[in-house]
Amino acid sequence: MLKAPDHQVAGHQAREGQLGPLVDDSGRFYKPLQNNGRGSKELAFYRSFFSDPRVPHHIRRFFPRFFGTLVVEASDGSGPQSHLVMEDLVSGLDRPSVADIKIGSRTWYPHAKEDYIAKCSKKDRETTSLTLGFRVSGLQIYDEDNEAATGGFWKQSKKQVQGFTAEDVRGTLRRFASSNPSAATAATADEEPDCAFAAVVYGGSGGILAQLLELKAWFEEQTIFHFYSASVLLLRGNGATEAARVKLVDFAHVFEGDGVIDHNFLGGLCSLIRFISEVLCGGSDGRPHPEKSSAAENGGQG
């Protein structure tokens, strides 16, 4: 039986009669094919990406597995509609913490219509996209200590997230690796996020930082694709007992690279790496130690 995802933090949601993605009990995610050519473009990307011999096998693990398309009843009650069928990225994670981070200082794509460029540029200016090269689009962080008050997750509204400053972004990345993510809010103003899970979530050979550095190494070389308005998902299970994961999603605006490095995406990815390095190397206070942050960004050598 298909249902609305419980842990979707950004994008169109299949609630209150709206068209949005669905999930089943077998670990699959059903995304409606978007109109205006976006759906067909994303479908074409998935079909080509996993069969393209130029894409290294170790890079493919950062992208959701793709199972084709299927016509199912749309969530808005409009009848049968074609959906992309892919891996449900939070399936199997116990009380997952999720951060959706849109990468790139420029989210509009070449040859887009003027009104679309104006709309995207306005949002890029009003969020941290233009200044940081990325912005937080949505998040939820499991909060065991305040389960009764928060419903089990620390979240921010869409409006709050859109108003994030660089310091808010830094604080959010600290909360993502903390056992007390609701600290330093109105109810707990005397506390600070403890970054108790930073070494496990962000550090180590299999942590988020190492995964992002692996992606960075590919983006420093790959000239196959240019990704506009795509997101990096950071995921972890309860208490960081399950391995943290990095995934790329949202490929309606992927274009051929034509032999040119995707500097827009690469720049945003490098900026995100710097922020996470600061959290990891700053310890419990989250304040960066420049010499340690530099070593972390270069794979721990320094």
From TrEMBL:
<dbReference type="GO" id="GO:0005524">
    <property type="term" value="F:ATP binding"/>
</dbReference>
<dbReference type="InterPro" id="IPR005522">
    <property type="entry name" value="IPK"/>
</dbReference>
<keyword id="KW-0067">ATP-binding</keyword>
<dbReference type="GO" id="GO:0008440">
    <property type="term" value="F:inositol-1,4,5-trisphosphate 3-kinase activity"/>
</dbReference>
<keyword id="KW-0547">Nucleotide-binding</keyword>
<dbReference type="Pfam" id="PF03770">
    <property type="entry name" value="IPK"/>
</dbReference>
<keyword id="KW-0418">Kinase</keyword>
<comment type="similarity">
    <text>Belongs to the inositol phosphokinase (IPK) family.</text>
</comment>
<dbReference type="GO" id="GO:0005634">
    <property type="term" value="C:nucleus"/>
</dbReference>
<dbReference type="GO" id="GO:0032958">
    <property type="term" value="P:inositol phosphate biosynthetic process"/>
</dbReference>
<dbReference type="InterPro" id="IPR038286">
    <property type="entry name" value="IPK_sf"/>
</dbReference>
<feature type="region of interest" description="Disordered">
    <location>
        <begin position="1"/>
        <end position="23"/>
    </location>
</feature>
<keyword id="KW-0808">Transferase</keyword>
<dbReference type="GO" id="GO:0051765">
    <property type="term" value="F:inositol tetrakisphosphate kinase activity"/>
</dbReference>
<comment type="function">
    <text>Inositol phosphate kinase with a broad substrate specificity.</text>
</comment>
<protein>
    <recommendedName>
        <fullName>Inositol polyphosphate multikinase</fullName>
        <ecNumber>2.7.1.140</ecNumber>
        <ecNumber>2.7.1.151</ecNumber>
    </recommendedName>
</protein>
<dbReference type="GO" id="GO:0005737">
    <property type="term" value="C:cytoplasm"/>
</dbReference>
